[in-house]
Amino acid sequence: MTEQQKPLVGVIMGSKSDWPTMKHAVDMLEQFGVPHEVKVVSAHRTPDLMFEYADQAEERGLQVIIAGAGGAAHLPGMVAAKTTIPVLGVPVQSRALSGKDSLLSIVQMPGGIPVGTLAIGDAGAKNAGILAAQIVANQDAAVREAVKAFRTQQTQTVLEHPDPRVD
Ligand code: RP5
């Protein structure tokens, strides 16, 4: 439903193979009711599309871009180089190096072009979705309330299940 409204968050990834990871970011945006769009945009296979996407993001009304990539993960940094919209980078867990290559490719940006880098893999994607919602929440009371409700529920779940041996 939130995908049909004018998107505030753009979720892009270097390959279709990144989707099982990046889905966790989208799940959170859905949960918080944040309008978003999802697209494969590759720094290496579709470089012109990447620049066009970054160039047009602001005028299209995007407030945050979540960019996931693995291996030589240049997508988040290159998108950040072409826009002043906050870019959150998700290092996808690569097969060869377990995502350490992805992490270092994304996190080691030169001073002046920030990328907010999350953890490797599913947790990073999930947190990117939450963080993007928190950014949108600065100007959106409904999203703010949804994030707060999520936090409260999460805390309650832990408190109500203190014994790790019992489901
Ligand atoms: C990166 O290369 C993608 O982000 C992906 O994580 C990785 C492998 O891509 P595929 O070969 O699976 O398409 O650009």
UniProtKB/TrEMBL annotation:
**Xref: Pfam families:** AIRC
What region holds the PurE domain?
Answer: 7-158
Q: Which SUPFAM superfamilies did the record assign? A: N5-CAIR mutase (phosphoribosylaminoimidazole carboxylase, PurE)
Q: Which domain of life is it from?
A: Bacteria
**Enzyme class per UniProt:** isomerase
What EC number(s) does this enzyme carry? 5.4.99.18
Instruction: Detail which positions bind substrate.
Output: S15, D18, R45
Question: One GO molecular function term?
Answer: phosphoribosylaminoimidazole carboxylase activity
What role does it play?
Catalyzes the conversion of N5-carboxyaminoimidazole ribonucleotide (N5-CAIR) to 4-carboxy-5-aminoimidazole ribonucleotide (CAIR).
Question: Which family does the record claim for this protein?
Answer: Belongs to the AIR carboxylase family. Class I subfamily.
| Protein name per its UniProtKB record | N5-carboxyaminoimidazole ribonucleotide mutase
State the organism named in the record. Answer: Thiomicrorhabdus heinhorstiae
